Amino acid sequence: MHIRAPGDHVNLLGLLFSVWGALTMLIGASMLALGIAAAALVRSAGRAGGAQLAAGLTAATFLTLALIALIWGAAHFIVGRQLRRHVSWSRLAALMLGSADLVLIPFGTALGGYSLWTLLSDDTRRLFEA
After folding, report:
1. Residue 119: exposed, middle, or buried by beta-carbon count in 10 A (0-12, 13-18, 19+)?
2. CA-CA distance, 61 to 94, in Å (whole number)?
3. Per-domain residue ranges for the chain?
């Protein structure tokens, strides 16, 4: 498969965003399960003490991280779908998400770099203006 036109790069980027979002939501769902399990441990422990405090902090941490991962993944999934449809607002949203992904070494860095390279070209800009 040879990618030549800017639309091909945008379609591939949209697919990569959707896959990245789906995987991130899967991680979020896993953390949600761990958070619920930790919360169940807190509830089942009858005595107060250090173990209950630790389980409570663990539950709160997992639930917070799960919520962040689910929102982050959903944003990528939605933007990826809209990129493939060449919806004008999705280019700016993908640039913002891709820029933030740069710090998520190694795969986020690759996705962020590819999104910046793809979406900042003049041909791609014209594709979203049409």
Report:
1. buried
2. 28
3. 15-129
